[in-house]
Amino acid sequence: DRSRGLGDVYKRQTMNSAKNGCGCETIQIDCKACGCTYNDKCKCTAASINVDGNDARKCDETKCSTFQCEY
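Above: the chain's sequence. Below: its structure in token form.
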């Protein structure tokens, strides 16, 4: 499953909003999920993400439920 292990895959940085002058809202997080339509040069282009794994004790027990396979 290419969306597994998001504790390592996604690193939360900052929210980018209309403050930057573009009038858009995007998240600013690194992405290493291979084959995801939202991964653009290791940056997530989704407006928001959901990470599943409420009972996770290790990063490999989480996954991005926003993951969309580009293939």
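The chain is about 5% helix and 25% strand.
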